[in-house]
Amino acid sequence: MRRQSSPRTGGRFRFLLPLATLLAASAPAHAAAPSVPMFGSFFPYWLLSLFAGVILTVIVRLVFVLIGLDDILRWRVPVYMSMALGLTFIISFLAFGR
To answer: What pLDDT, on the 0 to 100 scale, is given for residue 7?
Structure first.
């Protein structure tokens, strides 16, 4: 015999959704927008970090080609994409603290 589910399933925890909404709404937001003033306008910091990460990845790839490491890489695209993302996150954290 199968037990019928009642419409009050999870009734004990019904208060958690409004509570979570209130906590999220009352949490302090960042005081500044995630941007950097450049050339008289605001530029998103993540785009600067991404650009620097890609440039550094190209430089690292050139070093890998010079020392012969690029030839033995099995999956070049995932390696360099991961390197670009990792460098982007590191630059974002070190330069902007976010």
So the answer is: 55
